[in-house]
What does this fold into?
Amino acid sequence: MTPPSISAIGKPMQIAFVPDDFDAALIHWTQAMGVGPFFVMQNIVLEDGRFMGAPSDCKFTIALAQWGDVQIELIRQENDVPSIYRGDYRPPSGAMHHVCVLTDDIAGARDAIEAGGGQVLVEGKVGANGAVIYADCGPAGTRPNAGAIIEVLQPASGSEGFFAMVAEAAKGWDGSDPVRLVG
It folds into this structure.
C-alpha cells in the first residue's frame, strides 16, 4: 500500500515563528495584529527528544494564540544546544518557521514524510500518549529547509480541550491580559 502524500496527513492548523525578540513579537502580534491572548508555556523539553537522530534536551518556551481558524505559535529556545530553532533550520527573523498538522497516526505520517523524500529532524513524546515529528520535506539536494518545516503532532489526550480553550479565548478578545502563563 502506498503511503499518503504529505498533504494528506492533515490540514495546517498552526503557523509558527522563531523571532529574534520573543517579547517584541508578542507585542507585535497582540497590539499591531490584534491576535490574542497568548498562552505561554515555559521550559518545555520533549520526552525522548531527538534531533537529527541523536538524543536532544532542547528546552524552549512557546506562546500560542488563535487567529481565526489558525493557531499562531511563537517559540524561544532557552538553552544552547543544536536544534531546529538555531542554525540552518532557522529562517530569518519574522519568517515562518513551520506549519503544524494534526494526526492520529504518527507512524503513518512518518511513512508519508519518508516516502515523499522528507527528512525527520526532530521527534519526541508529547504528554502521556502523544508524539511529534518535525520534518524538512524538501528534496535531499535542497536541504536544509528548502521550504518551511512541517510539524506533525499526534496530540496527547486532553490537548483538544487546551486548543479549544485557546480558540475560545480569542473570540471577542478585547486586548486585556494579552499574555497568560500556563502551568
